[in-house]
Amino acid sequence: MDDKENPYDMDSSSFDADRYLERLLKDCSLRQIMDTEAAVVKDTQTLHSDMQTLVYENYNKFISATDTIRKMKDDFKQMESDVNLLMNKMQSITTFSEQITGTLQGTRSQLCRLSEKHSLLKRLQFLSTLPAKLKALIEEQNYAQAVQDYLHAQKVFAQYGKQPSFDGIKLDCDAIMEELKQRLRQDFQKAGNTAQSLTEIGELLLQLDEQTSDLASEMLRCAGKRLHEQIVMLQDQTERDMLEFVDMGIDGFLNDLALVVTSYFDMFVAKHYEHERDDFQEHALHELNIFLNQQIDKYLTLVQDRVESDIGFGDTQVMLRALDRLHRRLQAMRNICRGLQVQRNTLDIIIAAAHQLCDAHSKSLKDHFADSLSAVRLSLVSAKNDVQLNDLISNLYVAMVEKIKGVLQDLLIFLRTDWSFNIKAEHKGALCVEGIREQLLIGFLRHISKVMCGFADASSSSPPNLLLVLSKTCLELEQQGVHILLALVDDLYEIDSENSATLTHETEICAEMRETAQSLLDAYVRLQGTNISQMLRKSVETRDWLNCLEPRSVRAVMKRVVEELGSIETVVASLYESTSAAGFRTTASSDSSRKTYFSNFNASKPQYRSNWSNYTPSQLESSYVSNIHRLFSERVDIFTSVEFSKASIVMGIIKIGLKTLLECVRLRTFSKFGLQQIQVDAHYLQMNLWRFVSDENLVNFLLDEILGSAVHRCLESVLMEPNAVEIICERG
Question: Which of 263, 147, 150 is nearest to 215 (CA)?
């Protein structure tokens, strides 16, 4: 059933109260009926209240509308009477006007004729006095008014030119204006003219029918002279700072150039001249474009020269403020110069300045690095053993890293967001930003590596501790510095080096640094090994081994070698910790391992005597005992790269010293006591070198080789009792 026809819906027009009540009594309980009654009563009261409110509100509106209508009715009555009065007065005015017009009709025609005659007489008077007036205006240098009066007279001459009485006046005026044209041409060609005066004179000459094409060429030529004078003047402003220099150029040169360009454009390009060829405007625009680019190129070349002279000496921020101001002015000129193409802009100068500043900072970094190295070297030479190598390394490392960070922060000024230019938007600028990373940072890190690697040459005569300091510094850069600096430059300059195929990766530089550190450390080992070798070689070569006395003590050189190795170990230990527990040994190993180098000689005393003392020298030389021993021994590489640990470094030095001692022994001939002295020295070294190394067997093997070579080179191969050797070594 439709809601509108529902007899049980109180809101419906077909609501039936009896049927609704009957249904309510039938379907609902007493409680529901009472609730329904309460709801109906409440809704009725609400509706009654709403209706009263509506009546009150509309009642006020009705009263207000009634008052308004009553007032309008009164106003219209007054207005109607006023309009009727006005109409009567207008009729009276019309009647009087018609009467006056009829009365003055004859006089009006006469007044018109007199007015025309008066106007003609004024024109004739103007023409008659024109030559004198033109001369007076020219003498007053009021050329614009003279040209304006002459052009005005031309219209009169065109109207009355056939009258003989006007020919003389016209000829006089033409002669005067021809002289004016000559004077204007001379003024136009003066070198001291400003752009404003050139424009004004050019406008006057055009009004006097000067040849347009000739005037256009002459205007550019004269403007070029004036602008060249300003370029020369700017070249002499060397005492001014960059900001003042650019402001002078903007206020003088660029403003004049803009005025010349806009005036030329308005006079020769924007206007059409009937007497010129059809392509005159196109040709004029082409000539103006060439002129504009030539002048801007001259000025920007001057600015670039000034920037190049200020880079590294002046304030970079002041320089960039000046270039930013210049960039804004040239952008404004581009907007003014419609249809013109300005080829060169300030971005090229700014990018070139960034490159030059990078080069200056690169040189500064290299000089600072050289000074730091000199300071380190001086500290090592002057302080000798009192200097702390860790402090030198820390100072050198921190000085380099902080200097590089400062340079990167300085160059960041080129990317400030408040500049009107954005060098990263240009391809050259993007390459420049990447160049800060590659040429400046990477280039300097490679310079560090190259310079430090040069100290590793045998001909460099570098102090040993300097090599150690530089090696450790390179290692610090490889482990921390390279990552810190490359991450910093990538973050500051928003460079995505990870996904770039052209940028140098961090691992490549780290590898170079580690290689340099390795070369320096190997050079340190070779140099210290050579120093030990020199002592051992001289001690062997300067002694008469055939006439030796029976050994009673260890030779002093062996004690000095052990002392020198102790000093080296102390220095190295301050920088490198041993990589294994053996590096911290405080006690010797067991005899079975510690005395391996005697295995061919004295595994037991009876065996030692039966093996060596029973042989004659010729038999010992042909013996296969030592050769078989070498055959089953591992080859010892002497000049191999060492590890970055205390034990490996000291072991490398010891190997070089013992190898030198071995070769020197092989070149000498020994008596019995000479052989026994070598035996005592070798045992002393074995007793003291164990604490410096992690692989004691290697030391024992080399000492075994030394004693074996001495036995082969001995004329009477009789070794000393081991107990006696022990006593001498412990006592000595």
Answer: 263
Under 8 Å between Cβ of 679 and 729: no
Answer whether 380's CB lies under 8 Å from 388's CB: no
| Rounded CA separation 121/156 (Å) | 12
Report the Cα 545 to chain-centroid distance in Å.
71
What's the CA gap between 313 and 264, in Å, rounded? 41
Of 406, 373, 386, 374, the residue nearest 474 (C-alpha): 373
How far apart are alpha carbons 609 and 731 in whole angstroms? 25
Burial class (CB in 10 A: 0-12, 13-18, 19+), 656: buried
Can you give 670-688 as a three-state secondary structure string?
Answer: ECHHHHHHHHHHHHHHHHH
**Amino acid identity at 103:** T
Class of domain 356-525 as given by CATH: mainly alpha
The arithmetic mean of pLDDT across residues 326-352, rounded, is 79
Alpha-carbon torsion 117, 121, 123, 127, what sign? positive
Give the mean pLDDT of 100-126: 66
Least Cα distance to 611 among 592, 632, 628 occurs for 628
CA 34 to chain centre: 88
Predicted pLDDT at 642: 84
C-beta atoms surrounding 657 within 10 Å: 27
CA distances from 710 to 665, 675, 704 (A): 6, 6, 10
Q: What CA–CA distances, in Å, run from 331 to 311, 335, 538?
A: 24, 7, 80
Distances, alpha carbon 672 to alpha carbons 180, 547, 555, 710, in Å: 128, 9, 16, 10
For the record, the structure tokens of 161 come out as 């030119």
Mean pLDDT, the chain, rounded, equals 78
Q: CB neighbours (10 Å) of residue 530? A: 16
Phi/psi region, residue 461 (left: phi>0; alpha: psi -120 to 50; beta: rest), is left
| CA–CA separation, 461 and 134 (whole Å) | 95
Backbone angles phi, psi at 714, to 5 degrees: -95, 140
* Tokens describing residue 181: 């044209």
**Residues ≥6 apart with Cβ < 8 Å to 657:** 529, 532, 533, 536, 561
Token duo for residue 432: 């420049």
CA distance 386 to 208: 95
Q: What six digits make up the tokens of 115?
A: 């007015």
Instruction: Tell me which amino acid residue 56 is.
Output: Y
Crossing angle of helices 464-476 and 443-454, in 10° steps, is: 160
Q: Which of 161-170, 614-623, 711-720 has the lowest mean pLDDT?
A: 614-623
Model confidence pLDDT, tens digit, residues 515-551: 999 999 999 999 999 999 999 999 999 999 998 898 8
Contact yes or no for 246/346 (Cβ under 8 A): no
Q: Which residues contact 373 (CB under 8 A, 6 or more apart)?
A: 396, 451, 470
> Can you give the residue ranges of every domain in the chain?
30-155, 190-339, 356-525, 543-576+617-731
Of the CATH numbers 1.20.1270, 2.60.40, 1.20.1310, 3.40.50, which one belongs to the domain with range 190-339?
A: 1.20.1310
pLDDT in tens, 52-92: 888 777 777 778 778 787 777 777 777 777 888 888 888 88
Axis crossing angle, helix 646-666 with helix 672-689, rounded to the nearest 10: 180
> What is the pLDDT at residue 517?
92
How many other CB atoms sit within 10 Å of the CB of residue 700?
22
Distance (Å, whole) CA 386 – CA 394: 16
- Rounded to an integer, what is the distance from CA 579 to the centroid of its chain? 43
- Ordered DSSP codes for 590-645: -HHHHTGGGTTT-SSHHHHIIIIITS-HHHHHT-SHHHHHHHTSPPPPSSPPPPSS
